[in-house]
């Protein structure tokens, strides 16, 4: 009962770059996103419309959004924390707004400077306005397994945030293993609870690969019928407000798994590897990617 097809969202230009200390010129970001747009991937998160003082690496979100060449087969999303961010994102062009908050009170406070309770009314307004503007909306929930400040998070805590975001009108939920601590039994426990409340089509899994568990966790999620995953090419990235958080699962590793077990994605592995090599070259450092190391040495 594995899904026949999986929809991957490439979050490299957002989650992958948000933590980069070296400035990456806008031209290079645009060229890279254009490459990603031609890999067959169906969704790309191209940047964040957040406070540029907090995430300086993505302060060119508007220019990026205005200048990328849009492939009509790709859904373009961006991170939006508040009404100001939504206004900029709508001007720059988005198909989907990604709102975000945490299941953990302390991570929410560090990341977006508010309590969970104070975040709901802000996101409710953003979600409503985005829907009224005809956009899709994803609700990201961070720290669904563990919080770097608070420890274990229960599935019930996650469910509460999911419920509020779904009531507010999000189309789907992306569940973030922000610091990459989950093992397959944690994924099972969370999905057992959430799938009693939401159809599997509403759930996206967003794994960081800090401890190399992401592929095992994706395999477990597939057995629950989950068919949407976030990833970054080359395993780029990390959350600047979650100490010890490394990159997302490498898109190329996920493709190797999915294609190997007969699940379609529509993505060319070769083109995705080339997009990985391109950004690796721009960053001037080796990405934490087995597949890129393998083809570079071949
Ligand atoms: P705040 O400080 O509470 O907000 O920030 P504020 O309204 O008081 O504004 C402070 C300053 O930010 C003001 O500027 C605003 O104009 C400006 P100043 O007067 O100081 O010059 N500002 C903005 N500027 C541009 N665009 C905006 C915007 N909003 C305010 N949209 C806020 C609240 C949420 C904005 C802030 O805390 C923030 O930007 N946080 C960014 C957090 C972030 O991007 N974290 C990483 C992404 S989340 C993640 O990686 C997890 C995920 O991948 C899933 C997972 O792995 O778990 C999604
Ligand atoms: Mg993330």
From TrEMBL:
GO terms for molecular function: hydroxymethylglutaryl-CoA lyase activity; metal ion binding. PROSITE patterns: PYR_CT. Residues 6-273 form the Pyruvate carboxyltransferase domain. Keywords: Lyase, Metal-binding. Gene3D superfamilies: Aldolase class I. Pfam families: HMGL-like. Transmembrane segments: none annotated. InterPro entries: Aldolase_TIM, HMGL, PYR_CT. GO terms for biological process: ketone body biosynthetic process; L-leucine catabolic process. Belongs to the HMG-CoA lyase family. This is Hydroxymethylglutaryl-CoA lyase YngG. It comes from Oceanobacillus indicireducens.
């Amino acid at each position: 009962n594995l899904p026949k097809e999986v929809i991957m969202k490439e979050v490299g230009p957002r989650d992958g770059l948000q933590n980069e200390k070296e400035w990456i010129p806008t031209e290079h970001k645009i060229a890279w996103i254009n490459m990603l747009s031609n890999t067959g991937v169906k969704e790309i998160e191209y940047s964040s419309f957040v406070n540029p003082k907090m995430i300086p690496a993505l302060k060119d979100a508007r220019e990026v959004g205005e200048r990328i060449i849009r492939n009509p087969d790709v859904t373009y999303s961006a991170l939006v924390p508040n009404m100001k961010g939504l206004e900029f994102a709508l001007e720059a062009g988005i198909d989907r707004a990604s709102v975000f908050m945490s299941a953990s009170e302390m991570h929410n406070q560090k990341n977006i400077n508010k309590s969970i309770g104070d975040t709901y009314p802000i996101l409710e307004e953003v979600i409503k306005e985005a829907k009224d503007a005809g956009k899709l909306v994803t609700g990201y929930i961070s720290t669904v397994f563990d919080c770097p400040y608070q420890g274990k998070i229960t599935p019930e805590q996650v469910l509460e945030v999911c419920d509020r975001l779904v009531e507010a009108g999000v189309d789907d939920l992306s569940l973030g293993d922000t610091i990459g601590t989950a093992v397959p039994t944690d994924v099972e426990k969370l999905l057992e609870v959430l799938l009693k409340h939401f159809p599997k089509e509403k759930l996206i899994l967003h794994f960081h690969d800090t401890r190399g568990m992401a592929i095992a966790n994706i395999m477990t999620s597939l057995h629950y019928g989950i068919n949407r995953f976030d990833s970054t090419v080359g395993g780029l990235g990390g959350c600047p407000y979650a100490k010890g958080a490394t990159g997302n699962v490498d898109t190329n590793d996920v493709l190797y798994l999915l294609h190997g077990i007969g699940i379609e994605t529509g993505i060319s592995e070769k083109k995705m590897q080339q997009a990985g090599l391109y950004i690796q070259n721009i960053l001037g450092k080796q990405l934490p990617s087995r597949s890129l190391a393998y083809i570079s040495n071949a």
